[in-house]
Amino acid sequence: MQRQAFVELSRRLLAHATAGTTDLAATTYSVSVADYADPDRWQAEMDRIFRRVPLVLALAGELPEPGSYKVTWVLGTPVLLTRGDDGAARAFVDVCRHRGAVVTPEGCGRARRHTCPYHGWTYDTNGALVGIPGREGFHELDVASHGLVPLACGERAGLVFACITPGVAIDLDEWLSGYDEVLEPFGMGRWHLVSRREVDGANWKIVYDGYLEGYHFGSLHRDTLFGAFMSNVMAYDAWGPHQRVGFARHGIERLRDKPESEWGDQEGIGLVCTVFPSVSFAFLPAGVLMSQLFPGPTPDRSRTVQSIFWDHEPSEPEQTDIEGIAEMLFGVVRDEDYATGAGIQRALSSGANTEFVFGRNELGLHRFHQTVARLLTSERV
Q: Same domain, yes or no, for 34 and 161?
């Protein structure tokens, strides 16, 4: 964010903290409990959202130079992200065109060639088929049409997007609605991966709901995050389906004692930026916690990849400190947020609720669930 944007957000949160208020929607908003459990609804979300929209699958810093690659799985599709000699990021289905084996294992690395472990068919960073052992056995094969299947891919603000369905185009300018201008000043494309963990969770929306409000800080996180952040003091902004949530820190009132020109960029506030449908960035003093949420194979399961990126290559002592931060944050997510979500999932069939209500103070959840509902019935992304 630019300096002025930080100051304006700090002003809003300082006013809320002083008055004991928060940003509010016009009314409450309710969703059916079935929205979290119905298999047909879940399948529609997978088909009409996760298989159609541009998904954030990497930070540009994970593909720092030509030949860099990352392989990740989304809804049973192995996706190979590469950076070519021209500097462009590309995405492919990581499946050999010979007999369908996965070409490159999940993870990050650097390779100019990707060779299938089954029969040795080889592809370059542009996805082209460049090697066939025993070529004489395939003399009629049209090599040009047997490269890795491409996926629509693009970069904005240091984020690498791809659509996991072959043949579906993406328009990042329309999709981001100017949100890339909000994220660009953070320079995330230059950041370094320093820590990564994974945690299993409940239904993807049960899990993601928790990233969109700070109403629960004083109860669920009383002995952890609540030590730093006020509960239920939030400022919401949206660009299309994407949201920025600001949280007031305890002690934000001290900003009143000095001129705005002396306010630090994140002094007195916490910041979470979400990219629909399932990525969250929680900003740290010198880095960011990126949470990538992937729906599981069934409606009641999901997987979250939690990565910390730093704005410079950390020294050994810094790395030790970062690992401590990472373990603390992972524990909060696993033992507090996701454990609670697992309980919600198990209790959905109890019949206690037919709908869940989001308060006026949970504006981020209003917008999120309204976007999900709209995309399920829209012909356009």
A: no
